[in-house]
Each structure stands twice: as C-alpha cells, then as structure tokens.
Amino acid sequence: MENTWSRFLRNKPAMAGLFLVAAITLAAVFAPYITRYHPTEQLIWTEGSKVQLVPPCGRFWFGTDIYGRDVFSRVVYGARTSLLIGTASTVISLAIGVTLGALAGYYGGVVDDIVSWLANVFFAFPFILFVLALVAYLPPGLPLMYAAIGIVNWAGVARLVRGQVLSVREKEYVEAAEALGGSGARVILRHILPNIMAPVLVQATLGMGGIIMLESSLSFLGFGIQPPTPSWGYEIDQGRQYLLAGAWWWSVFPGMAIMALVLGFNLLGDGLRDVLDPRTEAGERRWGRG
Amino acid sequence: MVIYTIKRLLAAVPVVIGVIAVVFILTSIVPGDPARIIAGKTADPETIQRIREELGLDRPLWEQFTDFFKGVLTFDLGRSYRNNRPVTQVIMERLPLTAKLAVSSTALAVVAGVSLGVVSAVKKDFMLDHGGRVLALLGISAPSFWIGLMLILLFCVKLRWIPGTGDGGWMYLVLPVITLAIRPAAFIARLTRSGMLEVLGQDYIRTAWAKGLPGRAVVLGHALKNAMIPVVTVAGTCMAEMMGGAIVVEKLFSLPGIGRLGLEAILARDFPVIRGQVLLLALVFVAANLLVDLTYPLFDPRIKYGGKGRHE
C-alpha cells in the first residue's frame, strides 16, 4: 500500500490531474471567498450604466458579460454544478454497471442474457437525446433528471466490464482460484475485478468527464441548470452570440474551465491506472526496451 | 460462426421489443394529458375527449402498447402535433443529413484514432507518443461545441477557408464532421494505445519478434488485431454518441438534420416526433451493436459467446 501511494505521488501526470481537480473543487467550495462579486450581480459603473462586455482586466479577470456580470465569478460558481452532477451520476452508473457487468461476464447463461438485454436496450438509446426526451416528458426537477443520467449511463460500464471479465475468465489464475474452491463472489471480487480495474478506472474517469460535458451540452442547448444560476455550457452559448463582435472572453473561459476539469479527471484516472495496474506498466517497460 | 450469428440476430429481437417498450413507457408517463396539449388551452372538454378517443388514450394501457407495437412494425408512428404530418415522413426528410454527418465522422474518428494510438504505442516515450497523448487528452477534455466554435472562428472568420454555417454543400459539412469526430477519435486513440501496450508485452509478441518477423507484421498483424476488441466496441458506440451529439453540432452549425428536428420537437413538446425519433435512432443502434457483436470472433475466437460455459 505504501509502495502504491509513493508510486502515485511520483506519477507527475496523476499529480497534475489531482492538482487540477483539487484546485477546481476547492474553488467551487470556497467560491464566495475567492470571487469579488456575486455571480448573478449586475454591476453598474458609478455613472449609472451597466458594466457590459468589459474585456479581461485587473478588476474583472475574465471580463464581464452583456448583463454586467463578472465572468470569473460565474465560471467559479459554475464548477459547483459540474462537479455535483458529474460525481453523483458517475457513482450511480459505476455501482450498477460494475456489479451487473461482472455477474454477466462470470456466470454467463441466463444472468448474462438478462443483463446484456437490459444493457443493450439502454445502450441503444442516443444518450443526449434520451436525456432531452426525459426533460420533455418528465416534470421539471433537476435532481431527478441528473439521477436519470447516472441510471441511463450504467450500460456502457456494464458492457465494458462484461467484455473484460470474458477475456480474463479464461486465464489460468481464475481456473486455479476456482479449483481451490473459491466461490463465485470471491473469485470475482478477489481475482477478476482487481485485474480489470484499469479499464474500469479509465472508463470511470472518462465517464466523469463525459457527464460533465453532457451537463454542459444540456446547458448549451438551454436545458440544463436554469439561468441565472451559472453553468459553463450556458455561458458558452450566451457568449457565442457576441463572439464575432469581439467579446471572446465570455465563451472562451468557460470552455477552458470545462477542459481543465475534464483534463484533470483524465490525468488522474490514467495515473491511477498506472499505479494500480503494474502488469500493464511491466508490459510497457518490456516493449520500451524491445 | 453461423450459429453464433443466428443467435445474435435472434438476441436482437428482445432488444427491439425492449426498446419499443421503454419508448412506450416514456410516452405513458407524460404528466398531463396529450389530448389537452393538442387541443390547446382554450379547448372545451368535449373536444379534448374527442381527441382522446381519436388517439386511443381512453383505452387500456396494454391495448395502447399493442397498437403502438403494430404501428412501429408498419412504420406508422403517428402524426406531428405541430403540422399534422406523418412522423415517419418528417424524420426521413431530416435523416440523410445527420446520417451523412455520423458516418463521415465515425470513419474519420476510427482512422485518425487507431493511427494515432498505434503510433503512440509503438513510439512509446518518444516525442510522437507525447504529442499524440497530449492531443488525445485535449480532444477528450474539450467540449465538442466549444471546439466547433473555435473552428468557426479560425476557419470561417480568420482564415475564410470555409464559407460559413448552414446547409450548402459538402464544404459546409467539413467543420461539423471534424467537430463531431474529435472526441471519439481521441477516445479511440487512448484505447488503442492502452490496448496495444498491453498486447505488446505478451509472450506471443516476443515470440513473433524472436521469429524475425518484420515490425509492421508484428504490430499490425499480431498486436493490433488483439488490441482491437475495445476499439471495435467503442467504434460501434461512436455512431450512437454522434447521433446524439449531432443535436449540439447541428445547432452550432445551423444544419437542418435530425438533431435539430429533435430540439425543435422538444421545445414545442411535439411528443410523437420526439418518440419517433428516439425510437428510430435506438433501432438503428440495435443494428449497429449487433454488427459490433458479430465482429468479436474475428479478433478473438477464444471468447465464447452466449455464456454457455468456457469449455464448450
């Protein structure tokens, strides 16, 4: 464990990812302390006019929007929305997907048929359109909608885990564990899952990023968090209308914020994979010498 | 292989039934009365009742499901609330553009992603690898609509290489196709690299090297084939992601495809069109997933399908 932790600390990309995620999370948590203005406050110059579309400067780091709001404040507060939805939905989809995928891959037969059927049914729906259709059909309520994102998203995880289990269940160490009398649950938990965690971790990381981007897409389309609550996608959509007029900052900074957060999770996931899956790293080293 | 194919084809039937059932359930949980939505706020109760009867909403749920199922089988998905035109006709008018977008983007994503992933794995720890990994990471991390926006700024506004947004020929599709392809390409590149590195560490690859096979034969003939299973899975799902992602890209580039239609239908609460579109795209992807399943044995014949046991 100590060895794993020290290897993780030595992994520079992972530490960079951890730094990005931690910095953005801390910024979101302590948003009131690091922003000068409230994200919905419409600022007014002393002579009475709105502080509209001011380019980035010492006072307004990311400039202001057409309504006279501070873009930096809106970007910082917007992180709360993305992190909350990303975390909740990823946890839900992983819990369901890993469990069902492992059971399907290991036991096969009827279990596999049922899980695969369910996964294929859910998997068949175009994700964003399905969520948007839910928005149209269901009564307004964001917690319900974002819980639905997590539940709908499990199929991809299950499919990946099932495929991975199918490919390792042929290995000698699984047969050995079974020959020694290991129960199905024990073999899955002790011998199979640890050996397929690398792709699951990558999937979880990308899933987190994917969900954060889905939320921003929904906001971009006008179906996410309702204004004036800040959301990165909504800011990009609003800002793009003034992009050609030269007000690039309104859409560029929220886009960079999304990229930074998703990049952070990607780097972190990759680093965790390198640390937790030495087999892959050993393979890489062998190839590197070859 | 033939038995496996037949089994997979038969396995698609319950999925289709499941898809139709989920879409029907989605329709049935609509809060409020669709008849009231069609009739308008000022309609009298008699008119609403008449519409309810016309739509069959006064009948038991299972009868409605049976009718819906029959309608799907005969391509009768009802009529649009907005213009009273058949839903199938409305969708089919918009489908070709989105299909063109999705197919082109998938092809681009697979070619670019696999190439980048293989080069990155083979040249591990060289500049090409570092550059490829950074590109892939950025591609996965940036939202497609934001990339699209930056592409518009660069190619339409600054360089003026592309005329602009809208539907006016293949030139207008270049940026949307690139925008749609970037994220899946980056994802495929990462998966290919990771799969290749794992495979390249296996004993049989060392054996291939020891036999004196040329590098291209080892990498493409032995390693890539065995690293392709996750890539094939993702390539199959690419289409689904792109059909969904088309909503965003079509809005950004003002393209009148099926994504834009869905957005318009959702804004207007045109339920038959929403239902028809979700159903149609879902059924298209049942076919795509089936194709993915059918390609597995080509890459790893050891995997036994159908879950009847590993030693069959």
Summarize the structure.
Chain A has 290 residues and is mainly α.
Folded structure, characterized:
The complex is a heterodimer of chains A (290) and B (312). Chain A has 290 residues and is mostly helical. Chain A contains 13 helices and no strands. Chain B is 76% helix and 0% strand. In chain B, helix 1 (2-28) crosses helix 4. Chain B is flat, with a radius of gyration of 24 Å. Chain B starts with a helix and ends in a 13-residue tail after the last helix. At the A-B interface, helix 5, helix 6, helix 8, helix 10 and helix 11 of A face helix 1, helix 6, helix 7, helix 8 and helix 11 of B.
Features:
heterodimer; A: 290 residues; mainly alpha; 13 helices; disordered C terminus; B: 312 residues; 76% helix; flat
Write the layout of secondary structure elements.
The complex is a heterodimer of chains A (290) and B (312).
Chain A: H1 2-10, H2 12-29, H3 31-34, H4 71-107, H5 109-124, H6 127-137, H7 142-152, H8 154-168, H9 172-179, H10 184-221, H11 232-240, H12 249-276, H13 278-289
Helix pairs in contact in A: 1-12, 2-4, 2-12, 4-5, 4-7, 4-8, 4-10, 4-12, 5-8, 6-7, 8-10, 9-10, 10-11, 10-12, 11-12
Chain B: H1 2-28, H2 34-39, H3 45-55, H4 61-73, H5 87-122, H6 127-141, H7 144-158, H8 171-200, H9 203-210, H10 215-226, H11 228-252, H12 258-267, H13 271-299
